[in-house]
Design brief:
By secondary structure, the chain is an all-alpha fold. Helices cover 86% and strands 0% of the residues. It folds into two domains: 207 residues, no CATH class; 203 residues, no CATH class. It contains 15 helices and no strands. It is a multi-pass membrane protein.
Amino acid sequence: MNIVRASFYTATATATRLLAGLVVIKLVARLAGPEGVGKLGQFMSLMSLLAVLAGGGISSGVVKYIAEYRDDTPRLSRLLGAALWYALGASLLMGALTLVFSTAIAQWLLADARYANLIRVLAVAQLGMALANYVLSVINGFMDVRRLALVQIAGSLLNIALVAWLSHWLALQGALLALVLGQALWLAIGLPAWWRSPYFRTGMLRIRFDREMVTRLAAFSVMTLTAALLPPLVNIAVRDHLASSFGWEQVGYWQAVSKVSDAYLLFITSAINIYYLPKLASIGDRAALELELRQAFRFLMPLVVAMALAVYLARDWVTLLLFDTAFAPSNALYGPQLIGDVIKIASFILSYLMLAKAMTRLFVISECVFAGSYLVLVYVLSARFGLVGAMYAFSANYLLYLVFNVWVVRRYVGGWGQWSAQYP
């Protein structure tokens, strides 16, 4: 399967997920008003974090090593057995901690200890989420993009149905409960889809400890934790700085434009994650790797430029549709943000080489360095240019990140053996 077909399937699945999210927000807004939407956002943040961490955050590692070992049956069996062992162990630990602190989490996150039972349900359900992550990672590792997209579409539609049904009976509590059950029930969709695949073997469900494979997967846990925790922490610091400098109303304009970018870029980043991680991991030839990266640029860069240009030209309408007339001042922020989006995708295409080749140390260091440089640039440029300086900081930081990734790729491709030995 090539990038064009993969992009079609991932775009369809992404659109369904976005639709499901919109339906959930609309239902909660109608049932519980602004307060309910606020609590929904907090609860979905917790779910998003647990979805990443469920099973130890090894999904990228499973995808990478399946793509690498798919023709080596003994090593593939060792990998999958170790992945199941790791995922179950990590999810049991995470579930136990969530159960113990359920009341405190409910009070801190939702300002209401009555939601503790819902947190306890989530603690148990995240075991199902971990197994669902495992199944989806196996499907992705075999580059079965069509099957993966169908599972995601079916899961999103199931979420919509569950939210509509339970919110009718239990209002906000029902909507939040449906989100939990819907995520866990993805396993009920993913397992049959996997069983019917031509690459399924019953031995893939055998749990075993393998020191070498567990060590390899643990490296991806470190990368996942870094990538999952740093951006929200940095964004919190950015919001606090902008609020203290310009007020929360201005922060709202910045946040609105950032959310628009996140929404349309999701179509591109999903394709990169689903297609390129296993593809790059499976390539061992320098010429083939260079060709794959060039093809990615030829296809994805014109696409993201066209999407960014369309958003810019329709920015007034987009702001009015997604927000309201009070957000009109945010239209002045789109230009530098969208330029940054284009540079971001260019850098992302190259940065997946670090994940595909398990350059753990380099990946973690680069994430920390560029998170720090972004924060510094926000302070410096917002002091010089005002609120739009935060958008300049976004673009400038990703330009630096792009230069760094060009250097990484050129070093890796030019010095294959030495680079692999230096960053195992």
